[in-house]
Amino acid sequence: MPDKDSPHIGTRIAEERTRAHLTQRGLAGRAHVSLSILSKVESGHRPASPALIAACARALGIESSTLMGQPYTDALRVERFGAPLAAIRASLENWGDVALDEAVPPRPLAEITKDVNHLGSLRRSAAYLDVATKAPALIDELVEASHRYEGANRERAHRLLAYTYRCVHDVAHKLGHLDLGNTILARMSHSAERSDDPYMVTLTAYLRAQSCFNTGRHEVGLRLMSRSLKEVEEAAAAGEVAALCVQGNLRLRATMLAARSQDSDQAGAEWAEAYETAQRLGRDTQNYVLSFGPTNTAIHKIAMEVELGEYGTAVQSARSVRFSREFTQTYPDRVGHHFIDLSRAQLWTGDRAGSEASLHRARKAAPQQARFHPHARETVLALRRAERQSSQTLSNLAHWMGL
User: What's the pTM value of the predicted model, to 2 decimals?
Assistant: First the structure.
């Protein structure tokens, strides 16, 4: 049975603070956070918000993932991620302009494309293990194709390779292997620049900004988004669907970066721009680079409100969100992430039963995402600490997460 006193983010903050020879008051001053809130977080009486985690991490000179306990080594071992992750690392050595003398000839690009598209659907399902297992062979094959083909076919091979790296980056980042994720981004950038596809280059910047959540350099991420938005502005104004999808996602990422910085004015303004783009698009659109639409924009509003600490508003906003059957089947990762965000808001508003129910819905939508998401795990620990006697379903959920 999992222990209610299992290490949580607060205990890790206290450990790192002690290691840095800082008092609570000293860390609170350096991180510009409330001493009272920091004390409650360290004692486990208050969940740590992402903004507080990022502030403490920067003040301590470490990454946020350290405070969140990522990667979750024991759980990854149980799920048998070791060999696939090692294969990914090995595949990343095969890149650039160095051709292998005895490499197996690649299949026609039309056949490879089908497998890459399937990999994309696995990514949207948050099927991390399947992506990690299938991607290394595709990477080797597409690297070889990029050497053997010329002209438009070479560019196409690089475009497919960049997208494959995008899928693998999701796995590395979500599992907490952030250094591996940075290596993947470097490989992706190399292929994106050779793909003759400006949106692949923009996608690389979009993913670069994701790492800013871990380092706490939100201003860097916002600068990246601002620059990328200028690059798609003309095509989006002309109504090009791919450009609108990219523009909307860049605005949503800027929304979350501003919210994590606790800048409610900029977060609200960025979300309003994303909403306008979603209205122009008029539908949830699955695009080859970044999918976008009204539903994704709506759930980001709730995520924004959670990051800003507006928990009651977030719960209220969630009541108007409805997922179509098509959206649920196409984007289970987004559905799962929504319920993880909602569970956090419900916990803060005292609705522990609702919080637990949302976590179960997140697990149903995207199991591996729920199991390895730090905020889902932290919410489970907070629910167990808050209950004198945990429900059997909550205990089972904690056990399943490996807490």
Answer: 0.89
